[in-house]
Amino acid sequence: MPNLGPTELIIIGLILVLLFGAKKLPEAARGLGRSLRIFKAETSKLRDEDDAESTTATVVQAQPQPAAPAPQPLASASTPAPAAAPAPSAEEQARVLEEQAARLRAQAGAAKQQ
């Protein structure tokens, strides 16, 4: 984009005055300033929400899942060791986390009522 010199800026200003009138230009500038402020505020809110979601996701992933220890039978020398249980799938992990979240919400609700 070519650089605009003072002459070009004066010509653009005169065209704007002719199109909108001298009384309407300050109102238009105020409206433009307000809309830019609103736009900036909304985009910063979106960034804050994205940051909060990524922080929450990181915290949820960092929490270890409580696992109940399974009783293991005593292995004798003649029986082979049992194979390790397969790791839970992502859907199962998500279901467990949702159940934990529901329990925590219920506990928080009960605590507020007391």
Can you walk through the features of this model?
- The protein has 114 residues and is mostly helical.
- It has a domain at 6-62.
- The chain is 68% helix and 0% strand.
- It has three helices and no strands.
- The N and C termini lie far apart (66 Å).
- The model has no long low-confidence stretch (mean pLDDT 76).
Concise overview:
With 114 residues, the chain is mostly helical. It has helices at 6-20, 24-62, 90-113.
Q: Helical element count?
A: 3
Compute the CA-based radius of gyration: 32 Å
Average of the residue pLDDT scores: 76
Q: Beta fraction of the residues?
A: under 5%
> Any idea what the shape is?
elongated
Question: Can you summarize the main beta sheet?
Answer: none
Structural class: mainly alpha
Number of strands: 0
Low-confidence stretches: none
Q: H/E element string?
A: HHH
Helix content: 55-70%
Gap between N and C termini, in Å? 66 Å
Q: Features of this protein?
A:
membrane, mainly alpha, 114 residues, cell membrane
List the helices and strands and how they pair.
Elements: H1 6-20, H2 24-62, H3 90-113
